[in-house]
Amino acid sequence: xxxxxxxxxxxxxxxxxxxxxxxxxxxxxxxxxxxxxxxxxxxxxxxxxxxxxxxxxxxxxxxxxxxxxxxxxxxxxxxxxxxxxxxxxxxxxxxxxxxxxxxxxxxxxxxxxxxxxxxxxxxxxxxxxxxxxxxxxxxxxxxxxxxxxxxxxxxxxxxxxxxxxxxxxxxxxxxxxxxxxxxxxxxxxxxxxxxxxxxxxxxxxxxxxxxxxxxxxxxxxxxxxxxxxxxxxxxxxxxxxxxxxxxxxxxxxxxxxxxxxxxxxxxxxxxxxxx
Length: 275
Fold this sequence. Notes:
This protein is of the alpha/beta class. 38% of the residues lie in helices and 21% in strands. The chain has helices spanning 44-51, 73-77, 95-105, 110-123, 139-151, 169-184, 196-202, 220-236, 253-261, 264-267; strands at residues 6-15, 18-24, 27-28, 33-37, 59-64, 67-68, 80-83, 157-161, 188-192, 205-210, 213-219. A hairpin with a 2-residue loop joins strand 10 and strand 11.
C-alpha cells in the first residue's frame, strides 16, 4: 500500500499549561480532498502549522508523503504548498515579482518561473494591474495571489487555512475550480474552513477536532452513519437530550458537525430579551 499523504502519531502541542493539540492521530490518503473542522480555538491552525513545519510539536511525530518531517524538513517543504490564515505576503512587491520570487525559492529556473507566474496571474484575473503592489491588492486578490504562490511549483499536497474567508463569489469560484483540477490530477488537499457548505461540496473526507482532540475522522458518509447510529441508540435508551433524526432524513455536514461537538443543544437556546 502507498504511504499516507499525511500521517501523525500522537501529535501534541502545549503552550504552557494549555494543551492546544492533544495526541492527534491523522491519516489522509493520497488524492483525498480532506476537510479539517473544529470550533474556534479547537486547534485547527496549530495543527496545520505543525503539519507544515511552521511550528514544532511538543510531542508526537508527523510524516508527509512517507517522510518524517523533523528529519527531512526541506525535502518535505519542496513537495507541499501552504496558504496560511495570515497569508504573510511581501507587500512591497508586485504580483509578478512575488510569484517569481516564490518560484525561485522552490528551485524553478527563471524561464519556468516567469512562464508559470504569467499563467497564474492570468488565471487568477490579476494580470490587468501589472504595476500594482501587493499591499494595494484587495483581500480577495491577496488570497488568490497566496494560492498562486502555493501552487506555482506543482505541490503534491496543498494546505489551506480558511482560503475562502473574505473572498467574493467570483474569486471563490476561481479558487474552487483550481482545487478541483488539482484533485483530478492526483494532488492531496488539506482544507480548514468555517464555511461548512463549501467543505461538504468539495471534500470527500473530514476530520473534526474539539478541545484539541480528534473526535471524528472518515468519509462524510461514514461520519453521517455514525451520528445517525448514535442518535438512534440514545433515543432507544430514552435519553431526553438526544436530538432526533427523522426517518429518511439525510444529515448535512453542519448537522453532523454540531452533533459531534455538542453544539446541537446550544443551537436551540434562546436569549430571553430576543423572544
